[in-house]
Structure to design on (458 residues):
């Protein structure tokens, strides 16, 4: 009887243990890591088919310190994500964290900081800002962070996806692609291999991000295991790996000394709040009312237009369509640029396009029709952005806001200009001209007048 009771108890215990959840990564000694074939210098396959790169070496050092065995499986980025998703691999070797990816993988602590991603264009292409690309296809890696970022931040851009960065460079060097987005060191490595460094130029930094390991969503135990191992890797060991590949991506000082920065920032913020409150008390009532009235006027398009032109308000019937000759006219574009520069060099103001001198709302339809590829708001906005960059300077975009609203069934464009922190010259046929706003007009100054105005104004 006693023997039967013991046997029954043993069977029950085995059943209970067998039904407990499995903890696959507790003290794990083996991990399968999906990595990229052509993400040089971070993760790639050499001529002998062996995995190499900064990320690979960091993981090898991690395995050494944690007495773990690693199996590296090379694949395109989209396949790497799929492998982790279906359990074929435990880790994606390194990813940028994004909103889209937040629903699939969990992320480790940082592996490599400060990875710059740039827009590259063909050297002969006259493009200085992303918006000026128009309908030119931009090459991106399929499922890459850049694909989602461009879709959200630059929805008008036309994207063309490729399985990896080597395919993008091959298409670019082969003449099938004139613009692409890649991480800067990856692009430099692949272009140099094809002796094509001088054929493409970086025109804009799109973003700077941090590479982290990606694991299956909800696998907290594996994330903790990875993070514990990463803490054992010293800063000097990481820097040695970066230097091995001719690259150095240190952790930002603000991250290393974040608590000192946070404490100092808190003290500075408290001091600024005190000064601000004190200043607000001293400000007299008349000044406050005047400020509120000015803000109300600035936000009210119909009121500004009804008030007519003045030192800080200007009307233009069109951006580029000549109502007399009934065709596009570059001279009218120059008038717009001249007015914007005059506002920049003075006290700022608002330029309304699509409004006649008498305040009649004409709309933007004629300008829209003059753009063959984008006969709409996007075409006009891209044109204005390009004019400002080429004829005044892209550094002045931060002082300029462009908006289009519908008033009485007509689209009207408003360019709001703040005073610039330095002189704004207009480039015209190899020369530079200087304008200021006075007597409700944009007035050019001579060389001596410009010198004196600049000396006294800034």
């Amino acid at each position: 009887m006693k023997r039967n009771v013991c046997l029954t108890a043993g069977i029950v215990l085995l059943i209970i243990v067998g039904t407990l959840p499995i903890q696959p990564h507790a003290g794990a000694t083996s991990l399968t890591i999906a990595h990229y074939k052509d993400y040089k210098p971070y993760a790639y396959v050499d001529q002998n088919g062996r995995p190499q790169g900064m990320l690979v070496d960091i993981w090898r050092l991690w395995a050494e310190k944690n007495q773990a065995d690693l199996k590296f499986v090379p694949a395109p980025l989209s396949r790497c994500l799929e492998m982790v998703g279906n359990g074929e691999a435990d880790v994606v070797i390194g990813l940028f964290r994004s909103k889209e990816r937040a629903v699939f993988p969990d992320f480790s602590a940082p592996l490599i900081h400060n990875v710059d991603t740039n827009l590259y264009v063909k050297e002969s292409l006259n493009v200085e800002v992303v918006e000026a690309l128009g309908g030119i296809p931009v090459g991106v890696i399929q499922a890459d962070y850049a694909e989602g970022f461009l879709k959200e931040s630059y929805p008008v851009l036309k994207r063309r996806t490729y399985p990896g960065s080597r395919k993008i460079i091959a298409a670019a060097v082969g003449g099938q692609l004139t613009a692409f987005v890649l991480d800067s060191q990856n692009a430099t490595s692949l272009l140099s291999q094809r002796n094509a460094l001088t054929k493409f130029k970086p025109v804009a930094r799109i973003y700077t991000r941090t590479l982290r390991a990606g694991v299956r969503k909800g696998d907290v135990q594996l994330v903790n295991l990875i993070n514990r191992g990463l803490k054992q890797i010293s800063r000097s060991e990481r820097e040695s790996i970066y230097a091995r590949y001719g690259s150095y991506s240190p952790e930002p000082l603000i991250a290393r000394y974040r608590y000192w920065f946070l404490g100092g920032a808190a003290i500075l913020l408290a001091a600024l709040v005190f000064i601000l409150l004190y200043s607000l008390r001293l400000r007299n009532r008349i000044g406050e009312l005047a400020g509120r009235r000015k803000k109300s006027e600035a936000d009210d398009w119909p009121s500004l237009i009804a008030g007519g032109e003045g030192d800080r308000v200007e009307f233009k019937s069109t951006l580029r369509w000549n109502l007399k000759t009934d065709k596009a006219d570059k001279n009218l574009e120059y008038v717009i640029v001249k007015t914007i520069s005059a506002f920049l060099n003075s006290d700022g103001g608002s330029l309304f396009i699509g409004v006649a001198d008498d305040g009649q709302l004409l709309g933007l339809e004629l300008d829209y029709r003059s753009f063959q590829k984008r006969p709409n708001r996007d075409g006009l906005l891209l044109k204005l952005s390009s004019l400002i960059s080429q004829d005044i300077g892209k550094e002045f975009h931060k002082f300029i806001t462009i908006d289009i609203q519908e008033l009485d069934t007509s689209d009207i464009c408003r360019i709001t200009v703040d005073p610039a922190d330095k002189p704004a010259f207009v480039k015209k046929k190899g020369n530079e001209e200087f304008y200021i706003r006075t007597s409700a007009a944009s007035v050019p100054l001579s060389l001596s007048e410009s010198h004196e105005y600049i000396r006294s104004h800034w």
Q: What stands out?
A: Confidence is low (pLDDT under 50) at residues 1-27, 248-256, 293-298.
